[in-house]
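Example record used in the benchmark description.
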Amino acid sequence: MKSRMSKLSGLILISLGFVFASLAVQAKLPAKVEKRMDKVLKKHLESAMFSREIIYYNLKEVSFKPENTIFYKLILDKNFRGYVYVDEAMGRYHGFTYMFLVNKDFEIEFVYVLEYSEDYGSEITSKKWLEQFIGLNPQSEIKFKANIDAISGATISSKSITESITFGLQKLTELKENGSL
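Model output (structure tokens):
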């Protein structure tokens, strides 16, 4: 009898785990990448007095798959500052991790490549190239090779991050519309 009860309890716990996994997303960045993200935010915000809170959302209420996407609410000096979006885009052979910060109006304030391991294409980590995205928002027309420059030798990475940023802005808009933000 005890054996059946413990098996039943185990099944119930496993079932609850699956239910909760389908309701909320909890992605985790490697410690090294998280540390780099905090260093970049500290420099951009010109303050160490910030915190970031992971945003959980119901997977059944969004049209996208979470994959490696993480959303953070950014608090600076106890005031809401904006959202940090962290995702992966694809280089020629490997994925790379990047982030962008949007303000309250969902305008991009900056973009930063947190981890890039390709042998070629590292030009996309250039601050000058990434500045093209500043001021863009979900209503902006973001077109690779039109208003976003391609980079010779980094065509795949530059196209990939451009498309990923565009999709990231759409994801943030969807989360706002369904009340998750």
